[in-house]
Amino acid sequence: EDQVTQSPEALRLQEGESSSLNCSYTVSGLRGLFWYRQDPGKGPEFLFTLYSAGEEKEKERLKATLTKKESFLHITAPKPEDSATYLCAVRASNTGKLIFGQGTTLQVKP
Amino acid sequence: GAVVSQHPSRVICKSGTSVKIECRSLDFQATTMFWYRQFPKQSLMLMATSNEGSKATYEQGVEKDKFLINHASLTLSTLTVTSAHPEDSSFYICSPGDPYEQYFGPGTRLTVT
Predict the structure, then answer these.
(1) Which chain A residues touch B49 with a CB distance below 8 Å?
(2) Mean pLDDT, consecutive 10-residue segments, chain B of 113 residues?
(3) In chain B, what residues touch A100 (CB-CB under 8 Å)?
(4) For chain A, how far is it from start to end, CA to CA, in angstroms?
């Protein structure tokens, strides 16, 4: 069964304190691992898509990496405006559907 | 990236009435549209997948007669919640299918009283 597990469920950081969010997955034929940011009351905002182990992508203070079993979202020197829920999803090759993890809610305090 | 709009952004309706939610793909021709539901403090759950001009495919546990999906054009899909009940109160989000980057609409908050 295709499954996505994110950890931790919640993370509190001080401004400038770097950390990583984890996304572990099992899927029959990966057709992309997606990271999204979601603010309260809004739809998910696309961040990255990763396709193969070893791939990395960066955007401002965020860097996403991928292995055969998990992905990490590294946040370098976070700012309060990075506070949000970060969602990870995988697309299975046999269905084409996105399967989401439960998300990590990040709070960055000034 | 794809620009997606939803209307309305918020709706309150009485139990037993029907509500229609519109999803427009403004700069992308979506042959496939995904509809998701999100309950408070939970992640997104796929409800159904629709292809332009054909019937939607519903996920297990989603009542197709209750959640009517129409995908009549490449830029417009609608979700109608029929005979709404309080347990249907949720955040509904559409997403046009894209093979590489999948974008989401801003969501519609439905409250059934």
Answers:
(1) 97
(2) 90 97 89 92 92 89 94 91 96 86 93 97
(3) 43-45
(4) 41
